[in-house]
Every structure is written in structure tokens, then in C-alpha cells.
Amino acid sequence: MLTLDTVSRIYGHGSGPGTAALDGVSCTVPGGSFTAVVGPSGSGKSTFLQCAAGLDRPTSGTVRIGGTDLGGLKEASLTRLRRDRVGFVFQSHALNLVTSLTVEENVVLPLILAGADPTSDAVRSRGRRLLARVGLGDRAGSAPAQLSGGQQQRVAVARALVTEPDVIFADEPTASLDPESAVLVLSLLRDAAYADGRAVVMVTHDPTAASWADTVLTMDAGKLR
């Protein structure tokens, strides 16, 4: 589902040698797997996620999602790919959910952005089915502010699943959660990999969270160790 081939990302190289946030990184994350990316602060974890997810373009190398070379896509096509084939779960609740929308509307937002009718039975049914899956079937009409941090993260996981993506990227998804909520979120991410066949990639500094993954990639100074 996800392949990086000798990917480098260099910052500030216009006036000098620059700094390599990623340095020749190669890896493959197949569907049906849960991969954690770990490493110290400044090791390149965030840049890895940004390049792998198409949020940033590498200086060199190739990133493929489902066989599609992201480097060959114009910005509009890359935006559509991220919307339709990639799911995101961020650390910050503010980034995850739109406060002016209901919980259900947040879950189906990617479908609405793709042109679906938010009032259609099919769209609403998919949103409510996913909310039930993450244990929040009774909170469809709630505002995000009425939910705890852990509940908001579970809504974010439901939204990440709504387009049936090839890959789900999770950036420190348990960093601000209590242990019980963290377990619920990690269980949902692992289920997305094993039950649904998604490739799930989680960046984390937490060794306990990383232990839920079946593969752990360690970043150090922009390289995989």
C-alpha cells in the first residue's frame, strides 16, 4: 500500500548544503499491517509522515500509495488522493475535528468534500455505522466540545475510515490521552489494519503505543536504523 524508495528531504539547500531531515529512506508498508515510527525529537519522524502522506514533497526519491507515484501528481490530483485514499488522525483535537459541525458531520466530512449529499441516507448510514464501530453511536448529534479528548480521537479514527482509504496515518494519536482512552484508540487503529486490510502508520514517541504495532521503524538523524 505504501512504498518509499530512497526518499530524502533537504531543507535550506538553496544557499548551502542544507539539512537532511530525511536521508535516503526506503521502506514498504503492506496492507493489513500496523507500523510504528519511533525515534528521538528531531530524528525525522514528522518529516517521514509528511512526505509519506503527500503533505510535503521530498527533495528526491519516490513515494507510492497503492502504486500511484505521488511525485507525478499535480497539486489538485494530490489533494484528491489524500482526500479519497488517505486517512489522518492527528495529535491535536483542534486539527482533528471541526467544532462547528456535529460529530456525525465530522465523520462524513471527506465524503461531503468529494461531492456527496450530506443528507442522503447512504452518507448518514455510513457515518452512523462508523460511529457505532468506535463506540459512539449515541453521540452522532453532539458537538465535538461535548466529548472528552479520547472520544474526539475515536471520532477522528471513524473519519479516517470513512473513505475506506489505502493508508491511515496517525501522528502521536495517544499523546494527550489517559491510558484507558489510549488503549481504545490503539485498538481501533490495529483493527483498521488487521480487520480492514489498511496500511496503518503511526508516529509516536511512546514505547507503549509502539508495542501495539507489528513493525517498528526507528528513525535517527533522518535515516532508518
The biggest sheet, with number of strands, parallel, antiparallel or mixed sense and barrel status, is: 6 strands, mixed
Distance between the termini: 22 Å
**Count of helical regions:** 9
| CATH architecture descriptor text | 3-Layer(aba) Sandwich
Overall strand count: 10
Helix content: 25-40%
User: Which structural class matches the secondary elements?
Assistant: alpha/beta
CATH class: Alpha Beta
Q: What is the third-level CATH name, the topology?
A: Rossmann fold
* N to C succession of SSEs: EEEHEEHEHHHHHEHEHEE
Major sheet: arrangement of strands: 6-7-8-3-9-10
Low-confidence stretches: none
CATH superfamily: P-loop containing nucleotide triphosphate hydrolases
The structural domain count equals 1
What's the rounded overall pLDDT mean?
A: 93
Please give the radius of gyration in angstroms. Answer: 17 Å
Strand residue content: 25-35%
Shape: globular
Describe this entry's structure for a reader.
Helix content is 35%, strand content 25%. It is an alpha/beta fold and 225 residues long. The model has no long low-confidence stretch (mean pLDDT 93). It has one domain (2-224): Rossmann fold. Strand 4 and strand 5 form a beta hairpin. The two termini are 22 Å apart. It has a 6-stranded mixed β-sheet with strand order 6-7-8-3-9-10.
